Each structure stands twice: as C-alpha cells, then as structure tokens.
C-alpha cells in the first residue's frame, strides 16, 4: 500500500541536542510531534460526553472464531490502543459478550489493562492528565435469556466495570432488543438501563441494533424515567445502507441521539483487499463469497475517489460514514490498519463524491446481511 501523506499524518521530528535538553525537560518524549488528526472543535457530543469523530471497535480483541484472535496479538493491540490515544481517538467500543469461550470478556479486560498501563510520561507531556479520564468506553450488555430482571443488568454492568477497571462506563448500551422473540424480557432491559444510569454506573446510555419503531419506544420510555437516550449503534456502511438506516438516522437527528456506525468497512470487504479469489478464512469467507462478486461497481467508485484523493479505499469508506453524520467505529487488528484508518480523519469527501458513492452502493446487487438481532 502506498504511503499517503496528508496534513494530518505529517510528523515533525525534533532532534534534541545537548543545548536543547536545557529547554525541554523530557526531550525523549518530544521525539515526535504530530499535527492533530482533527481539531478540538471537531469532537462530537454524545450526551454529556465529547468523543473523537471516529472511534475504534474491539470485537476482534478476543474473538477467535471470526477474527482469529490469539493472545500473542495483545502486545500489538496495546500499541494500537496507545497510538489511538496519542492521535486523539478516545472512543472504544466493546461488549460484555466479546471474546470466544474461555476468553469471554477479553475485549473489556484488554481495554482495562491498556487504560491502566497507558504511559504516564506521555500524559504529562501532553500537559493533560485528563487523557485517561477522557477515554470513553462504550460497552454493550448482552440480552442473554437468563438476564430477566433489571438487577441482572446492573450486575452485568458491575462485571464490565471490574473487567475494564473503571469506576464508570462511558456509554452503557443494550446490545440488542428482545422485542422480536421475547417481548416480556424487553422491559427488564430498559429498566436495567435506567437503574445503572440512576446508580451512576454509566455516564450515558445507548442502544444497539434497535430499528426505528423500537428506538422511538425506548426513547419515550427512558425520557419518562428521566434518562436521556444518547446513542444508537447500527450497522452502517456503504454495504448496509438502506431505508432502515436512513430512517434511524433521521429519527436520531430529530431526537438528539448520536448514530454510531458499526462494521463501517463491511467486515473488511470495503478495504479493497479481498476478492472472490482472495477470501479470508473462516465464516467471513463464506459470507464474502456471496457478496464480493457483485461489489465491483462500488469498489471501483471507492478506488476512483481514493486515487483522486490520494487516500486508501478504507479511508474513503470510513470518511463516507462521517460525511453521513455518524461516528464510525472500524475494527482494527494491527498497527498498520490503525494508522491507515486514522487517516480517514482530517479531510472530508465533498457532496459530489458522497453522492457518487451513494449511487454506487445502490447499484450493488448484494448487501451485507442484516444482523439477526436488528429489530424494526
Ligand atoms: N452492535 C453490534 O451488534 C455490532 C456488530 C458488529 C460490530 N460492532 C462493533 O463495530 C466494530 C467494527 O465493526 P467490525 O469489526 O464488525 O467490522 P469493520 O469495522 O467493518 O471491519 C473491520 C475489519 O476489517 C479489517 N480492516 C480494518 N481496517 C483495515 C484497513 N485499514 N486495511 C485493511 N483491512 C482493515 C480487519 O480485519 P481483517 O484484517 O481480518 O480483514 C478488521 O478487523 C466492532 O469491532 C464492534 O466494536 C457492533
């Protein structure tokens, strides 16, 4: 992949001679000064929280089945976390169900470890010890069939707090609604969210995989209980955009709810690195085999714009989500991917480019499969 230079990725190297050491008390920390990826006023409000225009998703951090996680990756994942913070990313999405088998909760645990081990020297250098305090962990509570009382959700939240070693979760989100298959359980989820907010265990509350109808219902219910619904996480990308996503976005805009776009890279299909003859191993390969053959028009448009902009396909796909007014949370598994995705910030597709991509997405014969937990 070509190295692309944008103003946001320029790095200023400062050599520290003996004399300059008199000027700077910690010269080693000043090895690299970077232009910010985005300016403070470009931060986005989620209720009382202020977050970067893009967050990172951590589903892969502990998931062996779909994402091929191994504990040997932890060192690199920690570097990704540190790099993200150094570049102003302060939103990390996770869930209490992330991590396969024995590794259940691994994503939350790793985040907890990485937060607590984030280099203090760096915090001092940035003159902002609040970097750590400003981290927003957005976790999701699974609507497991055995979680049938509000208190069980409060306990789930306490377990997430333990794993993340935090006193408060940034955004506590319901992972999915049970309205489709266990409507009676739904009230326990909602009351659980109210209880964890009232107890101060979460700073803000959100939902995930709620469709337009359920979204309105829970919004009204929470409002009546004095709890603002701050975010709605939904599968949102050039591969999943459809009437539902547009309706959800419109509802959220009218109610002051922030849309968090998950799987913004279509699980990797919108990076341009996979093709019908180059598929990932495991279950993703089966899915991609069905979708990728129809994706050429969309990938061509992405490629065209990427070349013109001197960006990568992934950066354009992520930037499209931002252009649509959402906060994308691409998943990252390597430093290279994190660096690449960071350069989705600091610039913006224009309206013609957004439109070209909208049309190309419409022309794609196959879309991503809808999350089975997504409701109407
Ligand atoms: N609420 C929900 O129900 C729900 C559902 C799904 C996801 N999410 C959240 O959304 C986050 C993101 O979604 P996702 O992880 O499903 O999919 P995604 O962001 O669409 O794709 C992420 C994957 O694409 C590849 N990739 C990422 N950046 C790349 C780059 N610059 N170049 C090349 N390859 C790159 C990596 O996988 P490979 O290298 O293996 O290809 C990475 O794991 C998750 O981590 C999770 O936090 C929430």
From TrEMBL:
Q: Name one GO molecular function term.
A: pyridoxine 4-dehydrogenase (NADP+) activity
Among its keywords, does the record have Nucleotidyltransferase?
Answer: no
- Annotated EC: 1.1.1.65
Entry-linked InterPro entries: AKR, Aldo-Keto_reductase, Aldo/ket_reductase_CS, NAD(P)_OxRdtase_dom_sf, NADP_OxRdtase_dom
- Spell out the SUPFAM superfamilies in the cross-references: NAD(P)-linked oxidoreductase
User: What range(s) does the NADP-dependent oxidoreductase domain occupy?
Assistant: 53-358
Keyword annotations of the record: NADP, Oxidoreductase
Q: What class of enzyme is it?
A: oxidoreductase
Instruction: Give the CDD domains listed for this entry.
Output: AKR_AtPLR-like
Respond yes or no to whether keyword Oxidoreductase is given for this record: yes
Q: What is this protein called?
A: Pyridoxine 4-dehydrogenase
* Protein's organism: Castilleja foliolosa
